[in-house]
Write a structure and sequence with these properties.
- The protein has a domain of 152 residues: 3-Layer(aba) Sandwich (Aminopeptidase), CATH 3.40.630.
- It contains 7 helices and 8 strands, in the order βααβαααβββαβαββ.
- The protein has an 8-stranded mixed β-sheet, sandwiched between helices.
- Helix 1 runs antiparallel to helix 2.
- The protein is globular, with a radius of gyration of 21 Å.
Length: 245
């Protein structure tokens, strides 16, 4: 378990608010009201600067937290990617078999059942991020050799050599906690965990975009660059980012 405290969050916003407040003071435009607004924003930002993020490695003991996150916080902004992150671990054949054998019409329940089996078996791996005791973020990360070589998703995460490259395949952050460093804390935890397990590198698969995309589940390229990843190759819109350990 890692406990990470971020004190530098939004320092630039604090500076902006200070300058904004001083500007209104010099203009003498209802400074008293502006100061009250400034104080409220400043106190909120100070609270966020002291936010403690706890990162936990996903284990079967955290199943309740995992499903609580995905069902109550992950998709409250109408994200089009509602799932339990179970698809990345499935081959086309496994997906077809699960669908053919499913007798009901609640495919969300099917996805949850598959995810639960994957977590208990160790197929679905990654890290949960907590703030104030609640799971507010998730990162799917696993040995590339553990992903199928005929995946039901579009990107081939698989690599034949085990214990060599750790793959980062998905992020999900609760909407109200985005932009607060949780994705960076998760990615740093993946890097640290990979080092401890003797992996040679960590690999990410962000998608090239011309503008910010709210539901960028693979993480933006700049997220990887920020913690020392470099571009290894490109496959269509997918950029392979790699950090040597």
């Amino acid at each position: 378990m890692l406990n990470l405290r971020f004190w530098s969050y939004c320092d630039w916003r604090v500076l902006y608010l200070r300058e904004h407040c001083e500007l209104h003071k010099t203009r003498k435009k209802n400074y008293q009201v502006d100061a009250v607004v400034y104080d409220e924003k400043y106190l909120h930002i100070r609270k966020m600067m002291a936010m403690e993020i706890t990162i936990k490695n996903l284990t079967p003991e955290l199943l309740i937290d995992y499903f609580d996150f995905f069902e109550n916080r992950a998709f409250t902004d109408e994200s089009p990617y509602r799932c339990y992150c179970q698809m990345y671990q499935m081959s086309k054949e496994q997906q077809k078999e699960e669908m053919d054998n499913f007798m009901g019409d609640d495919y969300g329940l099917l996805a949850k059942t598959i995810a639960e089996k994957q977590i208990k078996s160790g197929m679905l791996c990654g890290y949960l991020a907590y703030v104030d005791g609640k799971a507010v973020g998730w990162c799917n990360a696993n040995d590339r050799a553990n992903f199928p070589n005929n995946p039901c998703c579009d990107v081939l995460f698989h690599s034949e050599i085990p214990q060599c490259e750790m793959a980062v395949v998905c992020f999900e952050i609760a909407p109200e906690y985005r932009g607060k460093g949780i994705d960076t804390a998760l990615l740093n935890s993946v890097i640290l965990g990979a080092k401890e397990k003797g992996f040679l590198s960590v690999v990410g698969f962000p998608v090239k975009r011309s503008e910010r995309y709210e539901w960028d589940c693979t993480g933006p390229v700049r997220l990887y660059e920020k913690v020392g990843f470099q571009k290894a190759s490109e496959h269509g819109d997918v950029v392979i980012m790699k950090k040597q350990l």
